[in-house]
Automatic annotation (TrEMBL), chains A, B, C, D:
Keywords: DNA-binding. It holds the Pfam family TetR_N. Residues 28-47 bind DNA. It comes from Bacillus sonorensis. PANTHER family: FATTY ACID METABOLISM REGULATOR PROTEIN (PTHR30055:SF195), HTH-TYPE TRANSCRIPTIONAL REGULATOR RUTR (PTHR30055). This is Fatty acid metabolism regulator protein.
DNA sequence: GATGAATGAGTTTTCATTCAT
DNA sequence: AATGAATGAAAACTCATTCAT
């Protein structure tokens, strides 16, 4: 497996740093090579082309992300708790790596349409976790039976993603994970007061 | 004279079409000029540079967007209704112009960081509408008094934006506005059943 | 005759100012038109093209130059005196019009080879004055009979031209005409002491 | 490998030829690259930009010029002889490289003001040689004690420069170095007969 | 005569990728 | 495996000139 060769990860980590610090369009292969401490040509022994670095970067980081998420998920037994964990964990993982947060929220979105489609494919694996939580919540009677899984998924992901992006754009100057509970509460109970009878 | 519309709008409309059909990075000035039916140089009589076309495009379209939104907003008198209108209108406006939807949801996001910051400035005017609705809802007692305006705003915008992007990525093959009511319901009451006592 | 139409001179004077203040390569036709207070298109009613403005500019100014030079030349009756007058007059005329000095010494030299050849043609009329002075000086026995007219001409013109250029490059901050006598003395008697026998 | 010379000199030599044969404004980087037998991009491994090629060209050639000049200067022991050498050598060096002569006398003068200022800086090193000769001549009593060093410098350089330029404009069709002695004689003794008493 | 909106040709530079060593 | 010198394709923008009014 490629991933075991040390230079592979060395280059990916270099890419994260270079992209975060210089921006997507200023992240030339030569800069990444220099940051990784290898020659330009060496990059191409480990990656097919530049796009492959970016996809691999996303794949590797997302893989670690999913792994950690799944690991902790085992400790929770209700969909409500799992959702709370998902949100908090999502925030913790991104606020724990400032470079990565910049790369995923701002820089990688500047990539070509084609690359973004591939990134979306990888993202699906992550969104599956959400789907499972929602489905479980419906089946367990925690969530309303009429809940549209796809919409709920877009709502959760759209909300956390927008929240992280706003945080990154504001130079990451406030604490992200502490927003998790409020967001969870809003997703579960909405903006209104508790008694639906008001309506 | 072929066109009575001033060339300014002619070029902006051409840019929307060219970007939607060719992608951001394949939208050369010469292509836009050709689509607009003017010479390359003419572009520069109306726009400072290529970036200026894109910013102007966003400004003009967003301006029309805000105007229409505010116009209809007058007919609604509760925050709940206004929110429902906002969501539906947002969907209607974007599903009513397929090219523009592709441009705003996919292509313009590939722009340089600097350009995206300018776009965000323009977007703030739009998000202000949301803020006003939320504040009004809290003051009128429709929304819970503990509602964090910023979070609620991110939640609404994150949700509708993610929903539209997913729709565009799926080649706009289903009806977007009909999702509005479900989303509104979820935002107001959350995923759970009505009785908070369960919790 | 074109030259009598007021706009012709208006445009030429505008060109001198614009070129002196902006440099040759930043002296666009539109800038000259604006400075002259006419529309861009109007330029082309009086001049064939941009190059024609520059040639005409040089022709007109050089014509005035030659006229004034010849006028005063009548008052001198020895070649030595005429040469002294030539040098002083050359300096006076150029130090009397700071814009023109910049244009002739620095900016017009940046023009295309072709234009410079045309300028050289016009310059010949001016250099003829020099030739006449030298020939007269030889015939009158004031200058050595072995004097090579062509070389002497190049020496005089090369010296005064280099002197003016240096003065312009030093921002015209010292008095140019007061150098005339020293230069004249050097041209007539050279660097050495008076007694040729030393050699 | 065709050439053993480092590409740096290869490109500079190519630039001299291309500029001489096509003129300053028709000397595109691609033409220079082709003449040098390298790819366009290779130019930018050795030079920052096009202007850098031109400055480097002038620096290198002027450096060689100064070096040769200084070398031979050692063999002469009077200022008069040194001046004679300077003039002859200046003519020899330029008439020995027809392309270079065209470039320095005609083409490089069309460059932007900014570039010309840089060229002038480099030229100062050359003019220093002249200054030293003049100062030495005054101190040794060869030249008159009232001689203004700056004026004398402008006179010498103005004269030789104008002479070379005229020669280039006349398609280099006569022998330049053979003019050296006459010019030297004129600079030392002037246009007049030897006996200053005439005056 | 006068206007000025419109035209469109033309060139430097960057950077992902290759391949001889 | 590793290197890094060399490659070459690709696009925004300026400005002299025209011509319909």
């Amino acid at each position: 497996m490629k991933q075991k060769r040390p230079k592979y990860m060395q280059i990916i980590d270099a890419a994260v740093i270079v992209i975060a610090e210089n921006g997507y369009h200023q992240a030339q292969v030569s800069k990444i090579a220099k940051q990784a401490g290898v020659a330009d040509g060496t990059i191409y022994l480990y990656f097919k082309n530049k796009e492959d670095i970016l996809i691999s970067l996303f794949k590797v980081k997302m893989g670690q992300f999913i792994e950690q998420m799944n690991e902790e998920m085992k400790t929770k037994h209700s969909a409500t708790e799992k959702l709370a964990l998902f949100i908090r964990k999502h925030f913790e993982l991104l606020s724990g790596d400032r470079h990565l947060a910049i790369v995923t929220q701002l820089e990688l979105r500047q990539s070509h349409r084609e690359l973004r489609l591939k990134i979306n494919e990888i993202l699906k694996g992550y969104l599956t976790i959400l789907e499972d939580i929602i489905t479980e919540g419906i089946e367990a009677g925690e969530f309303k039976s009429t809940l549209d899984v796809r919409l709920a998924k877009q709502m959760i992901f759209g909300t956390v993603d927008e929240t992280v992006t706003t945080w990154v754009m504001n130079d990451q100057k406030y604490d992200l994970p502490q927003l998790a509970d409020s967001i969870h509460e809003l997703l579960i109970h909405g903006f209104s007061h508790g008694n639906k009878e008001e309506k």
